[in-house]
Amino acid sequence: MKKLNKIKTLVKKVPYLAYWVRVIIYQFILMRTNKHPEGYFFSGTLLMENGTFEIEETNVVKNQLSKSDRMINIGANVGYYVCIAMKMGKEVTAFEPLISNLNILYKNLILNNWVKGVEIFPVALGSTSELKKLYGYGTGASLVKKWAGSDLQHYKIVPTTLLDNSVAQRFAKERLLIVADIEGYELEMLYGAEKTLQLNPKPIWIIEVSFNEHIPITSKRKFTDAKKLFQLMWKNGYKSYFADNNYVEITPKILNKIMNNKGNGLSSNNFIFADKKLTLN
């Protein structure tokens, strides 16, 4: 364990070494063919491959997918949730800006012959259409500077657009499940989703919301973005719930309690937002 910690410390101190370590890991994942426990081919992190990644959240996604016509996956990464939806026979629209993630995502789809009923947009989502710096790697890549301690020297230039530009009224009659995990940029994405928020029927959203974790110490985003996100969803006619199969509602009072605890003690940073007229189960 001490040797492993020394290696990790060395990798962090030497940027070029860190880069080549990630290149090797990426090539290893890209070349390897792995069979997921549910019977389809999948390459990704070990937890994703062996079916132990975000177990409770995965069960919630499957449950809601069973009642949906299409999944929109924002921050699709290597396609963990995309493949789950395709396995269930659902239509998929996915957004992923990082080319290294996209190559593995494409591989996972092609190996399973899932080439129809899925559309991939190689862009990031935000509140504006522009070119921005995407910092970091893999599942932790973010448009937020210094997110999770990411190195400002390592970034990719990616295009951003609005969710409304790609979705808006295209799926107005469909029951949509929108799964979003974009490392601290969720509120900005929602600012660009005004029309999508008002679709009829309203989509069900499963969104990762960070109150404290990974946010730069000096950032004004700490706690404030999380509160704004919940308030935005409530304003648009949604109720909020913990992303587990108990579906406990998060009221303003409960949110204040979470804020007072600085987000500590939460079993997950994923939350469900659904039409306030809907009984969630």
Automatic annotation (TrEMBL):
Coiled coil: none annotated. It comes from the Bacteria. InterPro entries: FkbM_mtfrase (IPR006342), SAM-dependent_MTase (IPR052514), SAM-dependent_MTases_sf (IPR029063). Transmembrane segments: none annotated. Residues 73-239 form the Methyltransferase FkbM domain. Pfam families: Methyltransf_21. This is Methyltransferase FkbM domain-containing protein. It comes from Candidatus Methylopumilus planktonicus. The lineage of its organism: Bacteria, Pseudomonadati, Pseudomonadota, Betaproteobacteria, Nitrosomonadales.
